[in-house]
């Protein structure tokens, strides 16, 4: 089964260097209720405001204030360019420039946590639930090691792992390491300590009769439960099963199996959606259609979040949105990470009938990668202007205003990764 988070990250990496193009998209999000007023053309700023935050050292971080709305971000002085675009001879490159991990507060004040040497190609994989550590893996390949960074000291510790690691919830005292279904080999899920020593191997070959583990899972915020998706390919290697998702305790015991809510589909969990449900994405077994669902853990009927997306650009209900991979609930509506043609990603808003409309973030190009939601705002990464650079932007959908926190025009360079302080909603 496809690992949807890996797919989104890969698509985003392509999109942020794709350059600017003429917009062919629909207008921005509509008001969530008749009483809400959409910003007029004259009131929408042509460019986002730039944060006037300051840069400080690790020793000056106000740790008592760090919490929801704070962000970890990878930044470097390297300016992203479109493929084939000529670089100035004296411009920094990934082979010559360091990468800095910044901790950024909601107003744009930033603090240097640590730096990585040139050519590391590190991906910011997770932030521990207690806010004390960040996890990095090598981008673009199945990791054989991870780097855990102590955010209070900046110390980096290499951990041997084989697969895709994440901190355990709620506090990050260990790692969950997954691998995806490969050929006729089930995906695996293991728990290791922070030195890489095996603590527990989850039984993933049959999952209570539901089938082989596909590689996608979601862990509850309190760490007591997991929801695993099965490969469920429906071919001679992996037969079709009606039960496509499995609720499992952190002791490896299957609590219950849950049916795939979309007929003839493969479904995988994205994240916890409410205390008693997860957000899942289902893709048709034959074809390109997909759909997001809210799946209750108690076995009661699932609720479709979106209508069925045909995966075609000319689908009239989705207007260029060929699939949605994540969603966030805000007072001003439900917003989605949407996929477009040619490897692009953008922000959409859910309509009352389950379709989507594209949201134009002021001053940001059409390619937008959503990093999460906090304090009624969305944190996004996108190109500001047509310089080909990537900035970290705080967007308020209710007022349709945005503020650049990091990257151009605040301090140049580019922001390659960002994670919000871990909360169930982010």
UniProtKB/TrEMBL annotation:
Ranges for region Disordered: 21-56, 70-97
The protein's name in its UniProt record: TolB protein
Feature: compositional bias, Low complexity: 21-51
Domain of life: Bacteria
Coiled-coil stretches noted in the UniProt entry, renumbered to this chain: none
Stretches that traverse the bilayer: none
SUPFAM superfamilies per the UniProt record, alphabetical: DPP6 N-terminal domain-like
């Amino acid at each position: 089964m496809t690992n949807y988070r890996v797919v989104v990250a890969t698509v985003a990496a392509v999109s942020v260097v794709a350059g600017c193009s003429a917009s062919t998209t629909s207008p921005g999000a509509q008001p969530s209720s008749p009483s809400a007023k959409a910003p007029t053309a004259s009131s929408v700023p042509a460019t986002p405001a730039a944060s006037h935050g300051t840069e400080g050292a690790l020793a000056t971080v106000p740790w008592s204030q760090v919490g929801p709305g704070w962000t970890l971000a990878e930044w470097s002085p390297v300016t992203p360019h479109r493929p084939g675009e000529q670089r100035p001879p004296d411009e920094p490159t990934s082979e010559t420039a360091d990468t800095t991990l910044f901790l950024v507060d909601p107003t744009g004040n930033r603090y240097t946590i640590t730096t990585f040497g040139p050519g590391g190609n590190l991906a910011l994989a997770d932030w521990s639930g207690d806010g004390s550590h960040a996890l990095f893996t090598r981008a673009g390949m199945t990791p054989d090691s991870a780097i855990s960074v102590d955010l209070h000291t900046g110390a980096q510790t290499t951990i041997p792992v084989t697969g895709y690691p994440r901190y355990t919830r709620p506090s990050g005292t260990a790692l969950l390491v997954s691998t995806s279904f490969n050929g006729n080999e089930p995906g695996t899920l293991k728990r290791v300590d922070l030195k890489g020593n095996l603590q527990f191997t989850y039984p993933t070959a049959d999952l209570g009769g539901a089938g082989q583990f596909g590689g996608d899972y979601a862990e509850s915020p309190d760490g007591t439960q997991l929801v695993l998706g099965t490969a469920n390919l429906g071919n001679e290697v992996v037969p079709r099963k009606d039960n496509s998702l499995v609720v499992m305790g952190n002791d490896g015991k299957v609590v219950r199996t849950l049916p795939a809510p979309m007929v003839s589909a493969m479904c995988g969990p994205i994240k916890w959606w409410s205390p008693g449900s997860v957000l899942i994405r289902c893709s048709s077994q034959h074809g390109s259609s997909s759909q997001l669902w809210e799946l209750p853990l108690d076995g009661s009927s699932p609720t479709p979040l979106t209508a069925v997306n045909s995966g075609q650009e000319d689908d009239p209900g989705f207007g260029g949105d060929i699939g949605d991979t994540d969603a966030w609930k805000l007072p001003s509506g439900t917003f989605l990470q949407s996929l477009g043609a040619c490897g692009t990603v953008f922000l959409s808003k859910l309509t009352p009938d389950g379709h989507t409309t594209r949201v134009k973030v002021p001053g940001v190009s059409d390619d937008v990668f959503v990093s999460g939601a906090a304090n009624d705002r969305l944190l996004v990464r996108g190109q500001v202007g047509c310089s080909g650079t990537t900035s970290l932007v705080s967007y308020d959908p209710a007022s349709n205003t945005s503020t650049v926190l990091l990257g151009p025009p605040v301090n140049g360079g580019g922001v390659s990764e960002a994670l919000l302080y871990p909360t169930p909603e982010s």
